Amino acid sequence: MVLPATPKSWYLPTKPHKFCPGCGHGIVLKALGEAIDELGIQDKTVFGCDIGCSLLSWNFFACDSIQTHHGRTTPVMVGIKRARPELITIGYMGDGGGYSIGSQHLLNAAVRNEKITVILVNNTNYGMTGGQMAPTTLPGQKTETTPYGRDPEITGYPTKGPEFVAALTSDGAYVARGTVSKYKQLKRFIKNALQNQIEGNGFSFVEALSTCPTNWRTNAQQTWSFLEDEMEKYFPVGEFKSPLGKGEK
Amino acid sequence: MQKVIEKAGKAFLTGNEAAAWAALAAGAEIMFGYPITPQNEIMHYWTRLAPKYGRGFLQTEDEISAGFTVCGAVQAGKKAFTATAGPGNTLMQEPFSMAEAMRLPLVAIIQQRGGPSSGTVIYSQQEVTLTTFGGNGEGHRIVYSTASHQEIYDYVIKAFNTAWKYRFPTFVLGDGYQAKMREPLVMYDPEEKGMEMVKPYPLVGLEGKIGEGREPQHLCNIYSMEEELYEVVMKFAAEYEAIAPEVVEYEEKNCDDAEILILAHGVVSRAADDAVKALRAQGIKAGYFRPITLRPFPGRQLREVIAKSGAKKMLIAESAYGQFDRLVKQEIYGETIPIYNLFMPGVGIIDYDIVNKVKSIL
Ligand SMILES: Cc1ncc(C[n+]2csc(CCOP(=O)(O)OP(=O)(O)O)c2C)c(N)n1
Ligand code: SF4
Asked: Which of A136, A178, A211, B353 is the most exposed place for a label (fewest CB within 10 A)?
């Protein structure tokens, strides 16, 4: 049997990974692994993950890795980078961790143009705690804490992360939104975000639209159609800011 | 307000579900919360039920916000509450401390999980110190430690009354086992049972025109002078001590002739109760004492039990590494009864564990 090639920077004793079948986290982490390989930064990378399903990646890479608190990955990575600027620090988190409980850290790291890379997985809900509303939950979407559908009158409209990070950062920042349905593009964005940190230009941020069939309670076809037809319509995919040449919209 | 429980009746529920029903039955008007295991289902049931009874809910951006929104809502005169656990309880210490400083009738249900840090999402009794004496304050809080689903229901209802009557932040301290297990209980309407529910009232947004008939409200929790703060804290301390005898609750069994006293709180007290029965069946005279209020603590009652039993030894059992033990010791300072421990941080304790420990120390 020929197994698909795994990135060199993956830590094989922890594979197969523990995400649910059909989960997008694995795809994002594959793109990240390949980007780390291609840039040759495995030995100087520090990977930090949040609490959320992202924590299942705490021993995912053959890179030095730190699991932090829910929402606190960004400041932990900032601390590492400020202490050791030669290291490449990657914060990996969910939309709850990044846009809700950790939003002040994301905001302030963006404003200070911290030279770290943040990769945030947007699956429109709180995966790990069993499917509550996230800042990214779409209007009308049912979750455990919006059992009658998200009502923007009560809870506002979904957070558009890259848009707000782009608005807050100054020159040198890299900001993009990719999707697990467009793997090559997502990988390019992640690689750009790492390259931007290597060059020391500024804050680098990629949101990845992702799937959570377990909490969406969707089959394979419904999962993909929610991602491509609903999410990608609401959350435009592309580069919002790039010092690396012309941004692609 | 619409009646929630028309007729008292038996139910078979998880503790989280019982807590949501109890808050509804107590007339809670709004819940603020942030997801965390093992508390989640309080929110899940509340979000399903609340709209049917015209009650509100907001999922805040984190626990700091959940706690402070409760502070705001009670200042506006509404019965509001939150629920959390573990690291969420840590974050809520900031708003809890504002509630302490401003005497706000905040109600919080804490379903303890393993710690420190993210720990486990399962169970512990490791939030005793945090819940009783957390924050930068003096522990002017009321903390009920429940042991069964019936108690979760009873004490969530009672917590609203206690909070609004005495105006100290009030906590119902459960745990992951109580949160997630199913157990039979009786649900009732508190007023049908003859309980008078204390009416909430606002501190801001009062009736009347400012300058004519009412003064503007200026509420603050910071002072310019050391002496001002001193006066405030001393007044709170005196008031807390004055109400403590009315608030204190405890349970004691088989203590009169006990040679060994077993102390436990919360769900572990059920194991202690069973252990006492098992030990007595084997001819060992064991008794059991359980504070229901961890703050204020039934210290006088415990001293009396020690004295009347003439027990030679005392065993403190808890699913933490000595948090309850410290609480007990500070309350019975000066007693000379030898104290033994069964500390099992973050894991459950059953009667067998206690029986074995007792036999090893007798
Ligand atoms: C202070 C604190 N509050 C709450 C939690 C509980 N908690 C664990 S994971 C999580 C949400 C995860 O959702 P998200 O960040 O969107 O990531 P996902 O699981 O969807 O990948 C929450 C609320 C916690 N661990 N710490
Ligand atoms: S719960 Fe959702 S986000 Fe978490 S591993 Fe499963 S599919 Fe992925």
From this structure: B353
Residues with C-beta less than 6 Å from any ligand 2 atom: A 19-20, 23, 25, 53, 123, 127-128, 212-215
User: Last residue of some domain: B187, B207, B222?
Assistant: B187
Report if residue B212 sits inside a domain: no
Structural domain including B271 reads 251-361
Separation of CA A27 and ligand 2 centre (Å): 12
In a domain, B54, yes or no: yes
Q: Are the beta carbons of A69 and B51 separated by less than 8 Å?
A: no
Between CA A75 and CA A81, with CA A80 as vertex, the angle to 5 degrees is: 95
Beta bridge partners of A191: none
A126 touches chain B (CB under 8 A): yes
| B87 close to A (CB below 8 A) | yes
pLDDT at A4: 77
CB contact under 8 A, B43 and A71: no
What pLDDT is attached to residue B213? 87
What letters, b where the CB count within 10 A reaches 16 and e where it falls short, cover A3-23? eeeebebbbeeeeebebeebb
Take residue A91 and report the two structure tokens written for it.
Answer: 């914060």
Residue B30: enclosing H or E segment and its boundaries?
strand B30-33
Q: What are the respective helix, strand and coil percentages of chain A, to the nearest 5?
A: 40, 20, 40
User: What are the strands, taking DSSP E only, across chain A?
Assistant: 45-49, 64-67, 88-94, 117-122, 125-126, 132-133, 174-179, 204-209, 238-241
Asked if residue B332 is part of any domain, the answer here is yes
B37 and B173 within one domain: yes
**Cβ–Cβ below 8 Å for B44 and A144:** yes
All domains of chain A, ordered by start, with CATH? 12-241 (3.40.50.970)
- Closest by Cβ to A69, choosing from B44, B48, B117: B117
Number of domain units in chain B: 2
The last residue of one of the domains, among B187, B204, B224, is B187
- CB atoms B44 and A135 under 8 Å: no
Cβ-count burial of A86 within 10 angstroms (0-12 exposed, 13-18 middle, 19+ buried)?
exposed
Strands A132-133 and A174-179: unpaired
Q: What is the pLDDT of residue A247?
A: 56
ipTM: 0.90
B47–A contact, CB cutoff 8 A: yes
Chain B residues in contact with A95 by the CB 8 A cut-off are none
Taking the model in full, what pTM does it have?
0.95
Give chain B's residues under pLDDT 70: none
Angle ∠(B107,B110,B116) on CA atoms, nearest 5? 135
* C-alpha A69 – ligand 1 centre gap (Å): 9
pLDDT by residue for chain A (249 residues), tens only, comes to: 777 789 999 999 999 999 999 999 999 999 999 999 999 999 999 999 999 999 999 999 999 999 999 999 999 999 999 999 999 999 999 999 999 999 999 999 999 999 999 999 999 999 999 999 999 999 999 999 999 999 999 999 999 999 999 999 999 999 999 999 999 999 999 999 999 999 999 999 999 999 999 999 999 999 999 999 999 999 999 999 999 865 555
Looking at the structure, do residues B23 and B165 belong to the same domain, yes or no? Answer: yes
The domain that holds B300 is classified in CATH as 3.40.50.920
